[in-house]
Amino acid sequence: MISETIYPLRGEIEIPGDKSVSHRAIMFGSLAKGTTEVTHFLQGADCLSTISCFQKLGIEIENTADRILIHGKGLHGLSAPTEILDCGNSGTTTRLISGILSGQKFTSTLTGDASIQKRPMKRIIEPLSHMGADITSVYGNNCAPLTINGRPLKGFHYHSPIASAQVKSAILLAGLYADGETKVTEPYISRNHSEIMLSHFGANVRTENTTAIILPEPVLEGQKIAVPGDISSAAYFIAAGLLVPGSEILLKNVGINPTRDGILKVTQEMGGSIELLNMNTDNGEPTADILVKFSALKGITIGGEIIPTLIDEIPIIAIMAAFAKGTTIIKDAAELKVKESNRIQVMVDNLKAMGADIESTEDGMIIHGGKDLHGALIDSHKDHRIAMSFTIASLLADGHTTILDRECVDISFPTFYQELNRLIGR
Ligand code: S3P
C-alpha cells in the first residue's frame, strides 16, 4: 500500500540556476578584463563559497537580488589571499580553483568542510604536478587542505582514467597559464560547460572527440551570462511528476546540454512522459521547458558513456527505480563513492530502511522495483542530493519519514521544500 495522503504536483516551476555554470561564471568573470554580469545565478552555498574565494583573491564581486557583477582584473589580476580559502562543501570550487592557483605568482592554502577534507584530490594533484605545479596536501593524505605555490607551468597532454569535468577543468584552467598547448583526453566526454564558457570569454579552446584542447594566455573579456536552470535540480521534480499519480508539471528554462541530459534519456527509456518545449540557446548552452506527466515506469540497465551525463542524478534515479516495475541495474558508476557522501552505500542503506529490495555492487546498485515503501528515519549524511531524493520518495511511502540534516539542500537548491509544497498545493 502506498501513502493515503498523496498530493499530485501541478503547475509551473522556475528551476534555480545551474550550479556548474554558476561556479564557472564567477571564476572566468574574475579572470576576464572588465565587468561580467550574471543573471539567474544559483544562490546556493556552494556557489557562494566560490564568490567568497575570489573576493579573497582580490576580485570585487557584487551580489544583488537579481544579478551578480564581477569586476574582473584579467588573467594575471588575482592577488595573494591573506586568509585560507574556504571552499565549503564544494568539490567544483576546490578542484577548479586549484588549477587556477597553480599558475599564479603567489602561495595560497585552501580547505573546506569535513566532507571536502575526505574527497580525493590526487586526481588533480598528479596531473597538475606534471605541468609543474607545486601542491602539498597539508596532512599528507592527498585531500584538502592543500597549499599551492604558484609556479610557471608547462603544457601537457593528460590521459585521464576517469570522465570527470572537475579534473578536466582544473587542467584546462592551469593550461591558461602554461607555456604551450594543454590537452585532456577522457574515456567518455564529461560535462563541457568550461569549454563552452571559456570560448565565450575569448579563450582558444576546442574539442576533438573526447579530447579538450586549450591554448595559453588568451585575453578574456567580461561577458553577460544568463545561467540556465539546473537539470540536476530539475531531476527531483521530473521524478516527482512521473511518480506521483495525477501530476503534471512544467519545468521552465532548464539546461539540456547533451553532456548533462542523461536523466531525460533514462526517464524516457523507463517509460516516462517527458516533452521538451520552447527550445533555445543561451551563451552556447541549450535550454528547454520540460513537461512531465505521471507515468508507469519500468526498470532498465544504465551504464557506460551515459553515466557522466547523469552522475549527480543517480540517487533520484534509484528512487524512481524502487517504484518502477522490474529490475534496474546501475553500473560503471564507482565515482558515486567519492561524491559528497558514498552515494552507493547511502542510497542502499536508506532505501533498505524504507523497505526496498536493493543491493550494492562494486560500481553501482541493483534495484528490484515495485515493493511498497514505508516511511523511515533517513540519514542524509549532509548530502544535498540524498536529502532531496528521499524527500521525493517520502511523498509515496506509507507513513512518516524524517530526514536528518534536511537543510543541506541549501548547497544546490535553497528553495527546494517551498517549491515542492507549492506544487502539491500546501
Ligand atoms: C561538476 C562535475 C561533476 C559533478 C559535480 C559538478 C562540475 O563531478 O558530480 O557535481 O561542475 O564540473 P566530476 O566531474 O568530478 O564527476
Summary?
This protein has 426 residues and is an alpha/beta fold.
Assign the CATH class of the largest domain.
Alpha Beta
Oligomer: single chain
Work out the strand percent: 15-25%
Alpha-carbon distance between the termini? Answer: 23 Å
Report the bound ligands by name, code or SMILES. Answer: shikimate-3-phosphate
Low-confidence stretches: none
CATH superfamily of the largest domain: Enolpyruvate transferase domain
Mean pLDDT over the residues: 97
What structural class results from the helix and strand content?
alpha/beta
Strand order in the sheet with the most strands: 1-14-16-15
Description:
With 426 residues, the protein is α/β, with parallel strands linked by helices. It has 2 domains: 10-16 and 229-424, Enolpyruvate transferase domain (UDP-n-acetylglucosamine1-carboxyvinyl-transferase, Chain, Alpha-beta prism), CATH 3.65.10; 19-226, Alpha-beta prism (UDP-n-acetylglucosamine1-carboxyvinyl-transferase, Chain). The chain has 12 helices and 22 strands. Helix 9 links the parallel strand 17 (301-302) and strand 18 (327-330). It starts with 9 loop residues before the first strand and ends with a helix. The structure holds shikimate-3-phosphate. The site of shikimate-3-phosphate has 11 residues, from helix 5.
Task: Please outline the helices and strands.
Blueprint: E1 10-14, H1 19-31, E2 33-39, H2 45-56, E3 60-63, E4 67-73, E5 85-86, H3 91-102, E6 107-111, H4 122-130, E7 134-137, E8 146-149, E9 157-159, H5 165-175, E10 182-185, H6 193-201, E11 205-208, E12 211-214, E13 224-226, H7 231-243, E14 248-255, H8 262-269, E15 273-282, E16 285-293, E17 301-302, H9 314-323, E18 327-330, H10 343-353, E19 357-361, E20 364-368, E21 377-379, H11 384-396, E22 402-404, H12 416-423
